[in-house]
Backbone:
């Protein structure tokens, strides 16, 4: 739980998105302060993954404003790339690059985007691999690692860019149950270190332990938001109560 | 004891596999009769009627066309430079180059042993084998100095161009004297080297979101794929001079190379585009999320995976290019096939079509077999790396 609550790091105002005629995001507004850990939960198809992808420009929005670290997200490529430098993303399907070793996966972006010299990048990569617990896998290819190891490597890859914000899109949903804990532990240490995290997940216990705020998404809009205590003990809306009764 | 045992085993095998039922027995006898008939025909032709005099007498024509005899050392030298680079690549990278080098050494050795090869040619062939070895030694010794390897390429490439063209230092051999296997290889290599990058650009352009680029690429690819190669070759012979006007002179060979390159680029484009579509969306997203720009994404993430996906198809394209060069005979260029037709038309060698065509077919067969083996080897190496 972070203490430093500065100004808004991410500000989303009245975001609207349509896929054809299907209104997937309806007037979504959210402000995330520096160091906050936000967990987004909700039923499938509620738009939570779509929402998190609009923040680093992987999905486009038709209406609304997104400001990340002071940079406004627009059609301008250089703005989008500037934002992507500061936001790291971890995907449900890991998306490691199969034709490169783990180490090469991690040093690629720091060398070519941050222009860090190769030796420093390798040093950072090895430190991160140690931090997530897979230093011995550095020279293997992603295909040779287990799911949990791959996801931890993906987290290391995102962290190598030293982002200000980390986005997690259902990071444990594709993992076997035995491997979920190792990934959640890494995410817990990240949260405790004071990093700003935005996490979409179905892991309720994790949310209860780690989140500063929990956001409930349903049908493309934010139904309710609040601290874990408020959320799990005293939900206000009917839909929230319904959802919680189904999963808890 | 073991002799009769193996005889019994053989009888058992024959009974089970060839003579197991009446139908199978009948089919076996029928196939045996057909095979015997064909083999008897081929063997009797090979031993009694075939006269390989036509190949002996024309071997130089078949290999280099009407290239002036006193300048043939230039072609041998080009081969020397290429073999040195091949040897170096073998020494540094091993893998697929081992196979290519070994096969070429065998081919040179076998050719040197053929009785009707001239003495000078034998010396040159021997030199080629030595150069492959020398290149290999160089590669092994300097394998850590990658820059040395690059320097060798950078030096050899203009040297080869100099040898082909002359550029005032050497006598300029007019391109209408180029011919035979030399011309085939030249056209094929130039076409491949230029059509592959062009094809990759076209594939990227077709997937672009910018309408002008996208539609240009679509129209180009579909137009070229809708037209047979032979018409493209005819058109490039007749139309290119009209477009270029009197700016500079385009030799017949150059026109054919341009037409062929533009034609092949469309096919490479579609193959590469297929390879790109086989890459999961997540790869594109992960590359974007890391902040890599378009060029970086394509160079480091997408193209390596896309090209690996379509190696069999790309090597197939290369093999087709080599074989399609024989079509330039129709626009009166004297490549291997063109020379072959000329030789047959010579009254001195009347009736010797079979020998000439078998020779030409064997040359292509050896080349294409080598290429498909390279392809298999390349796939194994790349998949081994990945897994």
Residues:
């Amino acid at each position: 739980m972070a203490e430093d609550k500065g100004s808004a790091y991410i500000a989303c105002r009245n975001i609207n998105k349509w896929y054809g005629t299907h209104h997937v995001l309806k007037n979504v507004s959210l402000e995330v302060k520096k160091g906050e850990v936000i967990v987004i939960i909700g039923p499938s198809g509620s738009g939570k993954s779509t929402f998190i992808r609009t923040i680093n420009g992987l999905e486009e929005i038709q209406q609304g404003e997104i400001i990340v670290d002071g940079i406004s997200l627009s059609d301008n490529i250089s703005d989008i790339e500037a934002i992507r430098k500061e936001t790291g993303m971890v995907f449900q399907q890991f998306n490691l690059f199969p034709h490169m070793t783990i180490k090469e996966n991690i040093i690629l972006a720091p060398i070519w985007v941050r222009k860090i010299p190769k030796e420093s990048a390798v040093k950072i990569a090895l430190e991160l691999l140690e931090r997530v617990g897979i230093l011995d896998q550095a020279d293997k290819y992603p295909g040779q690692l287990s799911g949990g190891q791959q996801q931890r490597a993906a987290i290391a890859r995102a962290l190598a860019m030293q982002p200000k914000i980390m986005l997690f899109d259902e990071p444990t949903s594709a993992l076997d149950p035995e491997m979920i804990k190792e990934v959640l532990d890494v995410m817990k240490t990240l949260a405790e270190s004071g990093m700003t995290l935005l996490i979409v997940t179905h892991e309720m216990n994790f949310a209860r332990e780690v989140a500063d705020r929990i956001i409930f998404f349903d049908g493309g809009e934010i139904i309710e938001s609040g601290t874990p205590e408020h959320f799990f003990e005293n939900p206000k809306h009917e839909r929230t109560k319904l959802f919680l009764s189904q999963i808890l | 004891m073991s002799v009769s045992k193996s005889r019994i085993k053989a009888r058992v095998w024959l009974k089970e596999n060839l003579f197991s039922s009446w139908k199978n027995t009948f089919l076996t006898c029928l196939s045996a009769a057909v095979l015997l008939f064909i083999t008897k025909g081929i063997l009797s032709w090979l031993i009694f009627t075939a006269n390989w005099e036509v190949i002996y007498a024309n071997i130089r024509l078949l290999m280099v066309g009407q290239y002036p005899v006193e300048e043939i050392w230039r072609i041998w030298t080009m081969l020397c430079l290429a073999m040195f680079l091949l040897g170096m690549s073998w020494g540094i990278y091993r893998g697929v180059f081992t196979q290519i080098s070994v096969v070429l050494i065998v081919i040179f050795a076998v050719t040197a042993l053929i009785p009707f090869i001239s003495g000078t040619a034998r010396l040159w062939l021997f030199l080629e084998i030595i150069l492959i070895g020398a290149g290999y030694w160089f590669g092994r010794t300097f394998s850590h100095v990658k820059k040395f390897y690059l320097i060798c390429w950078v030096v050899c490439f203009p040297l080869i161009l100099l040898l082909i063209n002359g550029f005032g230092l050497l006598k300029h051999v007019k391109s209408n004297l180029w011919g035979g296997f030399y011309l085939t290889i030249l056209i094929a290599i130039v076409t491949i080297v230029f059509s592959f990058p062009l094809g990759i650009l076209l594939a990227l352009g077709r997937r672009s979101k910018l309408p002008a680029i996208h539609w240009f690429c679509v129209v180009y690819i579909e137009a070229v794929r809708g037209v047979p190669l032979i018409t493209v070759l005819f058109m490039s012979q007749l139309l290119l001079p009209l477009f270029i006007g009197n700016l500079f002179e385009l030799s017949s060979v150059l026109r054919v190379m341009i037409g062929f390159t533009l034609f092949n680029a469309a096919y490479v484009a579609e193959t590469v585009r297929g390879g790109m579509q086989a890459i999961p969306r997540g790869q594109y997203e992960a590359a974007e999320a890391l902040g890599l720009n378009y060029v970086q994404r394509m160079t480091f993430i997408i193209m390596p995976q896309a090209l690996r996906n379509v190696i069999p198809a790309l090597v197939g394209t290369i093999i087709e290019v080599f074989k399609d060069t024989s079509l330039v005979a129709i626009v009166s260029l004297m490549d291997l096939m063109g020379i072959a037709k000329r030789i047959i038309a010579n009254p001195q060698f009347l009736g010797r079509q079979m020998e000439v065509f078998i020779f030409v077919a064997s040359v292509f067969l050896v080349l294409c077999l080598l290429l498909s083996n390279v392809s298999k080897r390349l796939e194994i190496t790349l998949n081994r790396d990945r897994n």
